[in-house]
Amino acid sequence: PATSIDEYRFTTNSLKRLDLYARPDTFLFLQFQRMGISSFPSATLNGLTQLDLRGNTFNAMPNFASRTPNLTILTMSGCPLTAGTLSAQDNINNLPTSLTKLFVDACFTDGTSMDLSALTSLERFDFNGFFDNEPIKNPDFGFCPIVNSSSIQTYNVRSQQYNFVNTQLMGSSTLLNLDLFGNRIRGLQGG
Fold first, then answer.
1. Which residues 6+ apart lie within 8 Å of 129 measured at CB?
2. Which of 18-27, 121-130, 169-178 comes out lowest in average pLDDT?
3. Alpha-carbon distance 63 to 92, whole Å?
4. Per-residue pLDDT tens digits for 96-109
5. What are the φ/ψ torsions at residue 187 (nearest 5 degrees)?
6. Residue 9 burial by CB count (10 A; 0-12/13-18/19+): exposed, middle or buried?
7. So what's the pLDDT on residue 7?
8. Which of 32, 84, 85 is nearest to 58 (CA)?
9. 59, 122, 145, 166: which could form a disulfide with 84 (CB 3.0–4.6 Å)?
10. DSSP state letters, 30-57
11. Which CA distances in Å does 122 have to 21, 129, 154, 187?
């Protein structure tokens, strides 16, 4: 039987509902771009592998690890993810380990380094620029975000203010594309 997977909240003058009447495990791909969505359904979407929520108003990353455990591609670009109380790392900790591609361009205002090494299947990571018109929180621009060096193929971390690249990333045998344009890279560090 068909059931509603939950409601999405829009940041307009009134609450709007977007009900999807189907078994939650039948969704493979969802795309809701620039719709003012600020929350994600509480239903578990086991079949969902691709999710595009770019340009919405999430101020924190939903717990995709529990709600979309088989997600492989996530696009959250342009969502003000550190406008709430979670740090960039706390947001990253809500991701499922099944991710192969992560696009979080212009999402964070938190300058702390992030560790994505638990995402052992991550092949592509795009993190370009900060969220517009937001002051930088915790301006500690040490290391570029750390990824799992045994799976990463494309690493695009542009227009940030990072000073160092982790030596494991530079020694990765799987890395094919590296773009660090617009950073303040002074060298390699770490192990």
1. 105, 106, 158, 159, 160
2. 18-27
3. 10
4. 999 999 999 988 77
5. 165, -170
6. middle
7. 44
8. 84
9. 59
10. EE--SS-B----SS--TT--EEE-TT--
11. 31, 20, 9, 24
